[in-house]
Amino acid sequence: MHRLRVGMAQMNATVGDFAGNTRKILDIISQARALEVDMLTFPELAICGYPPEDLLFKPKFIEENLRFLNKVIEASAGITLVVGFVDAKEDIYNAAAIVHDGKLVSAYHKIYLPNYGVFDEDRYFRAGASSECPVYTIAGVGIGINICEDIWYEAGPTSIQAYAGAEVIVNISASPFHYGKGNARERMLATRASDNVSVVVFNNLVGGQDELVFDGNSLILDEKGQVIARGKQFEEDLIIADLEIESVFRTRLHDPRWRKEKLLAEQRGGGIRVMVSEAPVSLTKPPLPARQVITKPLLGEVYDALVLGTRDYVRKNGFKKVLMGLSGGIDSSLVATIATDALGKDNVVGISMPSRYSSEGSVTDAELLSKNLGIKLKTIPIEEIFQAYLNTLMPQFEGKEPDVTEENIQARIRGNILMALSNKFGWLVLATGNKSEMATGFTTLYGDMAGGFSVIKDVPKTMGYELAKYRNSVAGYELIPSAIIGKAPSPELKPEQKTTDTLPPYPRLDPILMAYVEEDKSVEQIIAAGHDEATVRRAAQLVDRSEYKRRQAPPGVKITPRAFGRDRRLPITNRFKG
Amino acid sequence: MHRLRVGMAQMNATVGDFAGNTRKILDIISQARALEVDMLTFPELAICGYPPEDLLFKPKFIEENLRFLNKVIEASAGITLVVGFVDAKEDIYNAAAIVHDGKLVSAYHKIYLPNYGVFDEDRYFRAGASSECPVYTIAGVGIGINICEDIWYEAGPTSIQAYAGAEVIVNISASPFHYGKGNARERMLATRASDNVSVVVFNNLVGGQDELVFDGNSLILDEKGQVIARGKQFEEDLIIADLEIESVFRTRLHDPRWRKEKLLAEQRGGGIRVMVSEAPVSLTKPPLPARQVITKPLLGEVYDALVLGTRDYVRKNGFKKVLMGLSGGIDSSLVATIATDALGKDNVVGISMPSRYSSEGSVTDAELLSKNLGIKLKTIPIEEIFQAYLNTLMPQFEGKEPDVTEENIQARIRGNILMALSNKFGWLVLATGNKSEMATGFTTLYGDMAGGFSVIKDVPKTMGYELAKYRNSVAGYELIPSAIIGKAPSPELKPEQKTTDTLPPYPRLDPILMAYVEEDKSVEQIIAAGHDEATVRRAAQLVDRSEYKRRQAPPGVKITPRAFGRDRRLPITNRFKG
Predict the structure, then answer these.
(1) pLDDT at A281 (0 to 100)
(2) Would you say the C-alpha torsion A484, A485, A491, A495 has a positive or negative sign?
(3) Is the ipTM of this complex over 0.90?
């Protein structure tokens, strides 16, 4: 009797694309109806995409969102839907529409608005009231619905709804990726399910949106906290499962803690019960095929996040092809490989821009990589242009020794050439700097930092090497040539230059940068943890001094718990020494 | 008997400069003590500077702030101080320390945390409780203290404190400037003072911090809402006034509304009365000299905001000299003039970078301006470099017509030259683009957008002309030559180019941009307001398409109610058509 067929639409929405998102939603409704799904869920703000940021201040944006919600409602004959949208009353709410058989039954308003890290929801939304946590009955099964952050709180709407009679908790989310997040989220959801003796249906968004990647990885967990269905990582998916509610009933019946707390919750006024559908679910449905989705290892999920983030940025912004400088170094090689995986080899163009300081190996390594990837490589030497700059600036620079100026001029010539090709052919420039460089400022503003998207800006240098090796292991051969992975890093902007002339070796530097940037440790704490004092002081100073560069950096994929960007908002004008 | 000498320290704090800010505070305490001030106030977060942004996540930052507060407490012998700092209990608070005679008497926690526009205070602080609005008694006078946003709410701490017996309301602020804000603030404060029959002491911060300028303009208003003392605009100031409290007593005594509401407030639990000093104020103090500060007209305050914002960005970031490209156009001429007013003529270097497309007038106009300003002008023709790019790219561009690519190459050559001079000599590059260009993307990323600070990025083109004329009227002659103000705008990047080839004339364009960008009007609404349909659609499309450029723009001074930057946070990936 108490069996419910649930569908989770792990869809890739695009911010502001009401027509496109709604077309997708209607198409999934048709698929789900054919599969006799009783309740079909969609991610948080599926109608308008997430995060819409200050578009939410535009009244027309809110109106369009309501207009397209109505199209979804009209298409809901014979099915129950849970769809994320922006509700507009005396203020706006991050909301879930509960739609049944052509009617909007109710709207749930998100109670816990995240306002930390990459989130700014207090800027936009009014919070829902915890006195408004209705429970819906669908085919005899109690359903509690809440949104993303709501389920991260132990004493939040999830328990109110469960204690008020919801056997199934539906959480629609737009939970962004960073490495390890999927595991943490799964542990939290398992705890929530078993603590509340509830089936948890967690429907996450998938796709890239500027700096964020939503990893999908939607889950259904039974009342013991065991995963019974799992959506793909980094891909759209429609996950369908038959929920058995009998064991929820049985467990709750023998749980004295449960019954007392349920009472308490009812006294709190939570859990208004709203009937959605009285008809029992048909028992004649064909069984669903077994499905198995395996979660990826850490490097695998990071790599796939970079691929999806790049693909979605490029395509959702209307570009087809990309180009990037190919120096023969690890960073640009990794970016070219990610871009090729994201967009296909015909849509990636590498540009080799040798100078008087480029080693022979740099050029031949870039050639071998391009051959392996099957991408086009163009060679554009910068010597004539560089010489013209030196001639032009000679009267100004008289009596001055060559210094970092001449290095930056070369990097900016390359930036200008890449942008010129971009302007002429309509290709998007991918910047190739890594997080260690972004942190220390060991990069040239308007030079190697130039571009529309900075693919690996959140990847520490040492992780870049690991990702290259990971990708080679998947390929089963040296897709990224070992000469590239093995060589000592050098910007090749002056004779015999090595990165270690200026910076400590990356394996020593990266843990210091992580402690200082991601963990807010002080210089003193990092030294006390056993790192070399001079190195720590120099690293912290470099980070502090480079804020102005980061402020002008293109966006890139967030893969760490704290990325540069909206995640970390530091003043440029700042005399504090951390 | 009831007379209180109050000092307001309208100081220019620097974010993170604990030592420097504290040195300033101690120095002002000495001055105030010599002037027999009873109560001396400082701006919001005076100890650490405002806004500290994510520095607040660093435990060491919070500790340093407390350590330096202690130095201020130690220096408070014989005086009462109100000082902004970060209080750390189970969470952190935006707080005011009430310090008296060597002791911390109490700390008030800001209740209303702004989380809109440029503000993100919910990200950092816990809000104070309205049950904790103590009233302090200093020399028999009741004082209520609150912080910035708190006083903008009619039913906020101001009335709680007034009804609980405060005759004087001290509000310490860091209220950023935009044009017209000063007047709005003054009207609000006058209403608050007369509504609550209280003297209002409004102590604002002054100075530039990245994109924000705090305009000072501190005020003391009597219980009728009349201004009795006014701090300077855009300058540090120590404002001292003797407050007569007798008329507050008299007015309240005959105000039946007052007495009832006072009772209500006391029932609400607001207004804990804390004794700070029992000693009556000496009546032998010498009278204060009369002071008169005149508020500036709109163009004057905008101009001064640009000067202060530029000066503070340059100096607080450790630079002495600046340079900028001088094209002979209105924008770069205005920026050079502002920079000269901000930093002095010896610290400004103009660079003329003529190309094959530059008109003779451009070069001579830049020369005349430089002569008028007394700044150095260097001429660096870009022809040889431009030709080298064309030669180098010829094989790539074969069969393609010249287009915007070749224009951008020239702009980026100029960007590279300016940055090279910056690198070689340690001068900061000022970018010269205006808000109309930033809005429409009529500017070259890494070209004319290159620089450390973008002085007029929030100034619409049409206002730029007005500012130039305003500055000339102050000078009493054509400091900015009329040839510059009078010529038709042109980027001079191809033969016979006029800006109107590509954009509608600015007087038609600017009101559309303001409606679309600052007022969130839809295209349909702007057309309905009487603007030409094709122009509106084109303008909106240009704004939408240029988000990626703005994301990589340097910071600049906010002067409008909504500036590009932290004030307006739009996704780049966005298919919404406004």
Answers:
(1) 52
(2) negative
(3) yes
3-state SS, B525-537, equals HHHHCCCCHHHHH
**Given B148, B211, B223, B232, the catalytic residue:** B148
Buried/exposed code over B178-202 (b: 16+ C-beta within 10 A; e: otherwise)? bbebbeebbeebbebbbebbbbbbb
Average pLDDT on B228-245 reads: 95
Both B109 and B223 in one domain: the answer is yes
**Would the CB atoms of A396 and B380 count as touching at under 8 Å?**
yes
B17 touches chain A (CB under 8 A): yes
In this prediction the pTM is 0.94
Q: Looking at residue A267, what is its pLDDT?
A: 47
CA distance B276 to chain A (A): 33
Instruction: Indicate if A20 and A53 belong to the same structural domain.
Output: yes
Cβ <8 Å between A551 and B548: no
Does A570 map to a domain? no
Active site annotation includes B148:
yes
Classify burial at B318, counting beta carbons within 10 Å of its beta carbon; exposed 0-12, middle 13-18, buried 19 or more: exposed
As for how many domains chain A has, the answer is 2
| Residue linked to tokens 């009795």 | B228
CB of B127 less than 8 A from some CB of A? no
Paired strand residues for B208: B213
Interface touch B571/A116, C-beta < 8 Å: no
A241-277 confidence digits (pLDDT tens): 999 888 898 888 888 766 655 545 454 444 556 767 6
Q: Is A355 in CB contact (< 8 Å) with chain B?
A: no
How much of chain A is in helix, strand and coil states, percent to nearest 5?
40, 20, 40
Per-residue model confidence (pLDDT) at position A343: 98
Does the CA dihedral B267-B271-B272-B276 come out positive or negative? negative
Q: A102 with A206, same domain?
A: yes
* Chain A residues within an 8 Å CB radius of B65: none
Answer yes or no: is B171 within a domain.
yes
Mean pLDDT, residues B309-338 = 97
Q: Are residues A202 and A320 in the same domain?
A: no
Residue-number span of the structural domain to which A162 is assigned: 3-277
Give yes or no: residues A29 and A152 share one domain: yes
**Listed range (A152-156, B409-413, B434-438, B556-560) with the worst mean pLDDT:** A152-156
In a domain, residue B556? The reply is no
Residues of B (28-67) whose Cβ lies below 8 Å from A: 51-55, 57-61, 64
Retrieve residue A452's tokens. Answer: 């529309």
CATH of the domain at B254: 3.60.110.10
Q: What pLDDT is attached to residue B430?
A: 98
Kindly indicate the confidence band of residue B29, based on its pLDDT and cuts at 50, 70 and 90.
very high
| Chain A (172-231) residues lying within 8 Å, Cβ to Cβ, of chain B | 208-210
- B273 and B310 in one domain? no
Residue B446 belongs to a domain = yes
Residues A258 and A138 in one domain: yes
Residue of chain B whose alpha carbon sits nearest to that of A402: B424
To the query of whether residue B44 is one of the catalytic residues in this protein, the response is yes
* CATH number where A410 lies: 3.40.50.620
Q: Write down the H helix ranges in B148-283.
A: 157-163, 181-195, 246-253, 256-267
Is there a contact between A64 and A71 (Cβ–Cβ < 8 Å)? no
List of chain A residues whose C-beta atoms are within 8 Å of the C-beta of residue B59 = 520, 522
* Chain A residue nearest residue B576, CA to CA: A16
| Domain boundary pick from A277, A310, A339 | A277
More confident residue, A359 or A213: A213
Last residue of a domain, one of A248, A277, A306: A277
Q: In the prediction, which pLDDT does B268 show?
A: 43
Interchain pair A385, B378: CB under 8 A: no
Distance CA B358, CA B490 (A): 10
Q: B116 and B238, same structural domain?
A: yes
Which residues in chain A have Cβ-Cβ distances shorter than 8 Å to B115? 115, 122-123
Q: Which of B110, B321, B435, B558 is catalytic?
A: B110
Q: What is the pLDDT of residues B141-178, one digit of tens each?
A: 899 999 999 999 998 999 999 988 899 999 999 999 99
What number is the average pLDDT over the span A18-29? 98
Which of A467-481, B59-73, B151-165 shows the lowest mean pLDDT across its residues?
Answer: B151-165
Q: B389, A389: Cβ pair inside 8 Å?
A: no
pLDDT at A163: 87
Chain A positions touching B403 (Cβ under 8 A) are 423-424
